[in-house]
Each structure stands twice: as C-alpha cells, then as structure tokens.
Amino acid sequence: MCYVRQVLQGKPAEVWTIGPRDTVYKALELMAEKNVGALPVVDADASGKVVGMFSERDYARKVILKDKSSRATSVGELMSQPVVGVGPDDTLETCMELMTVRHIRHLPVLEGDQLIGVVTIRDAVKATIAEQRVLIRDLENYVIGARS
After folding, report:
1. Considering the entire predicted model, what is its pTM?
2. Do 51 and 20 meet the contact criterion of CB atoms below 8 Å apart?
3. What SS3 state is found at 55?
C-alpha cells in the first residue's frame, strides 16, 4: 500500500501557489512557466490557508466559455472550492477515489492547515504502476520458487 507521504518524497519539494486576488492571467503565466496544470490558491491574509484550487479546466470553463477577460478576472472569482485535500498519511487509494468521485486531477496535501504538496492523477497512476510491477515480480518469484 502506498501513502501520500511516499509519493511526495519522489517529487520536488517546492509547491507553486497563487493568491485569490491575483489575476487569472498571472495564474496562467505561472502554470505555463512551471509546466503545471493547477495551482493551490493560498490566502496570505488567512495565515497561508489553502482556499481553493485553480486549474486549466477552471480557465476553459469559467473564462473562455463565459467570455470573461483573464487579465481582469481574479483567481478567487473562478477557483474551485471548497478545497478537497488529503493528508500525508492517506493512501493513494483514497486519492484515486477522491479524484474519481469529485472529477478532479489535483489534490493539495495538507498537514493541518499547512500546504505541503500536491498529488496529481499522474502521480497516482505512476505510483500504482510501480506498485503493481513489484507485486507481479513477487508473484512470479513465488510461482517459480514453488515449482523448484
């Protein structure tokens, strides 16, 4: 069984965030620069609390399709909320279930109110494949050992 803490150990420690009063355009610039598909929205006035998530999907559905301007619209107006997050001791299975049920691809990892990372659907798939490879190898070794 794989835990969120283990997934985070294999990722860079830095998490890119955006503020709720920042423009959507600024968020898009940061997402493009850092090659990420979503940003946790962190409110500095609320002790750095994660107040939402802003993703490419939010942009596509809430700016372009509603004929809004990314330069004149704040992230706070469009962010997805309430925040659906996980803790470092949650399992990857929990993450995948949340992602599937809630139709989301990015989960902020929170320790208390503190943001410590983000787990993506890509992270979940990668870790699941690695875990299955180990299981298959162990089963193959067991079967070969049982024949000897």
Report:
1. 0.87
2. yes
3. strand
